[in-house]
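yo

u said u wanted the structure for the complex thing, so here. seqs first:
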Amino acid sequence: MTQPQSMSDALCEALAPQLSAYADNELWGSDREQVIRHLAECDVCRRTLARYRTMGETLREAMNTVTARDLSGITWPPHRALTSPRRAIYNPTRWRDPWPVLAGAVALIMLLIGLQILRPVTRPSNIAEIEQLDAADPVMVIPGDEERMTIIWVFDTGDRSESVDSGPT
Amino acid sequence: MNWLLPIRSFVILATILIANPISPWAQSTVSLTVQVIQASRVGNTIDPSLEKIRAQLKSLNYSSYRLVATHPLSTTIGTKQAVALPGGRMLDLYPYGLSGETIELLVTITDGSRRVLDTTFRLPNRGTILVGGPAHADGVLILAISGSF
Amino acid sequence: MLKAQKGDTEAFGILVERHRQQVYQVALAMVGHAETARDLTQDAFLRAYEAIARFRGDAKFTTWLRRIVTNVCLDHLRKGEHRMVVASYEEKLGSGDEDSEVGILTSHREAPDTGVSRKELGAAIVAALSALTPEQRTVLILREIEGLSYEEIAKTMDCATGTVMSRLFYGRRRLQALLREHHEG
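structre next:
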């Protein structure tokens, strides 16, 4: 493995194991915050994260493709594979008449669609939940409720201001 | 019996899609809107285009609210968006995930090298958060950040 | 379950039918060879049959079964009986063995994609798995295919969650390096 070329490479390298855990949604607290901030700035790590996810999806697709094929050799008791037909458990006559199955499938789909349509439309909530907050100046958070939005207020003491605004009253 | 398999697969797929249309790892499109508002204690007007959030703004007790700019942003989870703010400031928005019916958002406001605000929060779908306070002209800036997916 | 625990082989047979796909999937991903995976799956069910009377129900049956097949496969790989343990990535990819996962995958139709096809990438990833250590391969399979949490993987493999995190990280890094070499080569 080559040595990190710069400070940013060193940071990417240091955060690499956490990035892997972040991809699995297994990172919390300050470690998670650190990775999120780093991802906002680092295209390389964003690509790495995307590759982790692609790799996982592709592996799952590949395994789902292969394993449906041949389970006939796996029976119980094991010697039965040589003597009895595979269909000892399933009764194939169940599927002779497909119309009840089709009717059931259509009914299920109609029911699910109906539930979606009839689901009560909820008013959008304005309660934004602050997870973490940091500022150069004092900050006030006014939590939202059903009637009011969440407000984050920064009391600006930067050089640009002639006087510090007293903020909302 | 072979032709029953596609029907069974269709039923399962339809059930999954209808019950859970959002896959957390899909490249989900997120729409963000940033309204940049100038609030001051000079004058007594509220920009008509701010009608929808008029009540919220009035609760801040400034007498005048003017819409300076609206920035509609269509982006995806994991893609950072930058918006230039008045006074040389910069707003960065980074939607980093979807959690249930909320957008997980990292928002930073910088003023040159100075980090004015750095926050992560969960914004409800079709919800709005107000971020205010940075001084500008004879008053302050207020950002109304809305998001939907 | 209760009948199976009392030695009813018919009842256990129903459990086998219900779970054999999942168990086989884990075995196949771990050893990369269909025939060996079938043998190990059968071994896993034999072990499960012998131990089922002691299954207390404090974990889900699938969790318990998964632990058995994981240990059966790990024992097999660690003994070095499985020739794929030391197979190089390139050997595995170029193998003409139709019974291997790679052989099975390459017989499936193309999926639309940009650059490398999904089928090719799937085959490459599966081949690259054989170049990992048995432990790295196991955590990747339990995470990516079985969808277990770190805590569940740790319980299955009887190790710490930090170890799981480390094995996943190094496993993914190794896979990415192999895939990069393959596509650049």
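DSSP finds two helices and eight strands in chain B. The mean pLDDT of chain B is 84.
cya
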